[in-house]
Design a protein that fits this description.
Layout lengths: L6 H31 L5 H56 L4 E10 L3 H10 L13 H13 L4 E4 L2 E2 L6 E4 L2 E4 L2 E3 L3 E6 L2 H9 L3 H7 L4 E11 L16
Antiparallel strand pairs: 1-7, 1-8, 2-3, 2-7, 4-5, 5-6
Helix pairs in contact: 1-2
């Protein structure tokens, strides 16, 4: 990842240029000294050269120190970036578990519908005793199946693409089923991510699925190797909830 120029980079650049200038000056001065050594010693020039050599060494040492500090800063920055990446991954997982992010995985799909053929037969056979509600899927049927999936270890559940979260409600208003305040219509489809074998076994051997089958409702359960379950799109009622100090 590219690092933005900072005062560390500027300092290194300045120090590098300064060292280059000093070394060039030292070379030129030493050349002058060698040219004059054949005639007469120049004490002042020798002293100047010695001083420049000392200053050059100081600058080189400082440059090495700055490089080490910059490397340490870059390493700490890289470590911080790794930590941020890890925290972001953890946040995504927590959002997925809370129902706030779309998830994918294997599981089962339960489909169920009103018993329209049974209703027609009952109405024709005995119109006076015909009860249409007896042939409709109700909120409790879906709720019982969702609860059985939860007990079987389902990791994410949706009903007609309405994600089930702890605050979700499944209820009837008249003949209309509401999930998360969204109006649903048959055919109803319950998706659950988890161990397909365990989920299928729990539903097939549970109470609600065999009951609906016995009442001749068109219900079935299907294993799926991979499917998507959408994120929860509703709000949260927090009239009394406050973050703990």
């Amino acid at each position: 990842m590219a690092v933005k120029p900072t005062w560390w980079h500027i300092s290194l650049t300045i120090m590098g240029v300064a060292c280059g200038v000093l070394i060039s000056w030292l070379y030129l001065t030493q050349s002058t000294l060698r040219a004059e050594e054949s005639t007469a010693p120049n004490a002042r020039l020798i002293a100047l050269i010695n001083h420049l050599e000392e200053q050059t060494q100081v600058m080189e040492n400082r440059l090495v120190s700055l490089r080490k500090e910059l490397e340490g800063k870059q390493q700490r920055q890289t470590g911080g970036e790794y930590r941020v990446t890890a925290l972001e991954a953890e946040l995504r997982m927590l959002e997925a578990q809370a129902g706030l992010r779309e998830v994918a995985g294997p599981g089962v799909v339960i489909t169920l519908d009103d018993n329209n053929s049974g209703a027609l037969s009952a109405q024709q056979a005995n119109p006076g005793f015909y009860q249409p509600d007896n042939f409709l899927i109700h909120d409790k049927n879906i709720l019982y199946l969702v609860n059985e999936l939860k007990r079987a270890g389902a990791e994410a559940i949706a009903v007609n693409n309405q994600r089930i979260v702890p605050s979700s409600t499944i209820r009837c208003v008249g003949t209309v089923i509401l999930v998360n305040s969204a109006r649903l219509a048959p055919v109803y489809e319950i998706k659950a991510v988890g161990d397909p074998e365990a989920l299928e076994k729990a539903i097939a051997n549970g109470e609600e699925f065999p009951y609906l089958k016995a009442k001749e409702f068109p219900v079935k359960i299907t294993r799926v190797n991979d499917m998507l379950i959408p994120a929860y799109k509703g709000g949260f009622d927090t009239d009394h909830l406050q973050p703990a100090a």
